[in-house]
Write a structure and sequence with these properties.
Elements: H1 4-13, E1 17-25, E2 28-39, E3 44-53, E4 63-74, E5 77-91, E6 94-103, E7 108-114, E8 122-127, E9 135-137, H2 141-148, H3 150-157, E10 161-167, H4 174-177, E11 186-196, E12 202-208, E13 211-217, E14 223-228, E15 233-242
Parallel strand pairs: 9-10
Antiparallel strand pairs: 1-2, 1-15, 2-3, 3-4, 4-5, 5-6, 6-7, 7-8, 10-11, 11-12, 12-13, 13-14, 14-15
Length: 243
Amino acid sequence: MASKSSQKFDLLQNSTSKRVYDLQDKSGNFVVVRERGFLKSKNHAIVKRYVYASDDPEKKFLEQSVVISNPGKLKKIYILRPLKSEYVVWFEKKKYKTEMEIDPKSKSMIVKMSSPESQWNGTKTIPFPQGKGVYCFFSQVIDCAAITGFISQAIKSQAGEMYFHLIWEGYPYFMEQYINVKEEVFSNALLRYDGKTNDGLMRFTLEAGGQNIFYLVDSASRVEKIYWIAQGLTQSYKGTKSK
């Protein structure tokens, strides 16, 4: 019989989905479109995330992120191994962009920045943290945890914690949007199971970068709601298209 993690691995390779969310934060109301897919020829798990003004959905994005990971194994654990990402955000009608790509030879992240401001341009090489472990892009946290088998095991045990390294693909511009988020590419992170809601959703808390973010997840490891209380942010599932 296939393990829970391998079942998630198979599901990831054979499904694409498009999920739409309402987003509210201190700056207003928005629509988030999250697309997940798998490019079999390159063994790439891809997540695209777009943020639109609520009165202009899917016409011109205000923020976009694309993260690409390589499903594989770390010892006996299935993982999503981060490969590269692209993040674009518009501030006051000006475009800010960052691209990341892992350099396995130097064990570092290559970060390329382009923006109208001189301090946020050029290329940085940022070494990986010391030691080994699982790495996850911020946009793929729940997918990443699900493929390891942590989500299903935590729900079964009604308890559990997963320690990993979080990659903020929006660095450094992401940190300008939110208050007191540490300005770093890599953060030591903890994902903790916190029980079940009255409507049957599972609660998980992400601790990273000095922040706590709360995820409500259904039995298929799909995110239904996100609460980032310190930032006044709520993201709620609105609808889905899948094939």
